[in-house]
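Translate sequence into structure tokens.
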Amino acid sequence: MNQKSISVKCYFIIILLCSLFMTTMSACQDTTLKDEISGYTWIGDDGSKLVLSENQQMVWYESQESHHDNYYTGTYAVYRGPDAVEYLTTELSDYGITKEQLDTLFKKSLRYQQKNLYCLVFNQEHKTVGEHTTQSPAVHPYYGFYDGKNNYLDIVNLDSREYHGYTKTLEE
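Result follows.
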């Protein structure tokens, strides 16, 4: 074998090994979408404050300034991306949102994509008004989109059809 033949073979072996390495690395990547809303405090466009702890506890304050009056506590569940689509169209199918409707939305908009779709289910347990705290069990499902560039969560209450906008804060 001549020197040129060996160089060409080495070149092809290196290319083959690099391709194999890149294929292996991409197959090992986690395809699960990270939850970008849990563990943060959110300030509502209406002046409210929503605290979503990492341990799935939530507090909604009517006013971001007052933490002693007019607030709800409970737990929450969060679904993102394909999991949100699945939950919305199966568990919350009574609300009439279909996969076809969501797919049409995803195709028509660069802003509203499956990867930024969220479904939140707030399980309200207690309500405080004035000095009185009462058990007040209720379930409030929401869905909407998170804009990571602007740290903005745009959601709608599936029961009331009211829109709510929240901005992520650095406060914990």
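Note: The mean pLDDT is 85.
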